[in-house]
Amino acid sequence: MTEKKRAAILISGRGSNMSALIDAARAPDYPARIVGVFSNRAGAAGLQTARAQDIPTATLAQSRFDTRLDFENALTGILEDWGAEIVCLAGFMRILTPEFTQRWAGRLINIHPSLLPDFRGLNTHARALAAGVAEHGCTVHFVTPGLDEGPAILQARVPVLPGDTPETLSARVLAEEHRLYPEALRRVALDGTSKPGGVIT
Ligand code: GRF
């Protein structure tokens, strides 16, 4: 295999998708390695998980910065120190400026818990139930300036079952997220492209 791509992960909380990526990247033939985990919240549980696995971590409190751009420039400095070539958002609860998304265009990816373009934004599971959809799921996509708008790399679908609550549906989707994200990063690390409409089954 050619050199592994250097991937950083940005989180704000629990970090279960981060863990799925770290676990996948342990395989000798996986084409990316995780070079660091960043959080905008020092108390994010995922930071402990990463540290316990000897992965470098960093945090920056946005309150220390006058502007969003100042914060992001400091973040870019950290990512460059790690030599990051791909940046994976995994529950990173902060809107990024167009300057940042353009700086990392084609190398910045996100996981969103819906079948985009349906249910952009928050509370996707409750909204899917309220809409009465028969299928729900998750999407890994390239990040562009518009919220949850960039081209999809891969999607996974789950059925919505009778009696589902936002919690039961979220758990079903999350299990798929943990399969989907490592596969999407694998594809981006290998060829850097998306296959529009790709679905894993
Ligand atoms: C996931 O549902 C992800 O799709 C969304 O935020 C959640 C993060 O969960 N963007 P975790 O921190 O990866 O456990």
Q: How would you concisely characterize the structure shown here?
A:
The protein is α/β, with parallel strands linked by helices.
CATH topology term of the largest domain: Rossmann fold
Tell me what portion of residues adopts beta-strand conformation.
15-25%
Shape: globular
Q: Mean pLDDT across all residues, rounded?
A: 95
H/E topology pattern: EHEHEHEHEHEEHE
Tally of distinct domains: 2
Largest sheet: 8 strands, mixed
Walk me through this protein's architecture.
- This protein has helices at 16-25, 45-52, 68-81, 98-103, 124-131, 166-191, and strands at residues 5-11, 32-39, 57-59, 86-89, 108-112, 135-142, 152-159, 199-200.
- The protein is of the alpha/beta class.
- Helix 1 runs parallel beside helix 6 (166-191).
- The two termini are 26 Å apart.
- The structure holds 5-O-phosphono-beta-D-ribofuranosylamine.
- 5-O-phosphono-beta-D-ribofuranosylamine is lined by residues 11, 13-18, 90-91, 111-113, 138, 174, 177.
List the helices and strands and how they pair.
Blueprint (H helix, E strand, L loop, with lengths): L4 E7 L4 H10 L6 E8 L5 H8 L4 E3 L8 H14 L4 E4 L8 H6 L4 E5 L11 H8 L3 E8 L9 E8 L6 H26 L7 E2 L1
Parallel strand pairs: 1-2, 1-4, 2-3, 4-5, 7-8
Antiparallel strand pairs: 5-6, 6-7
The chain binds 5-O-phosphono-beta-D-ribofuranosylamine (GRF).
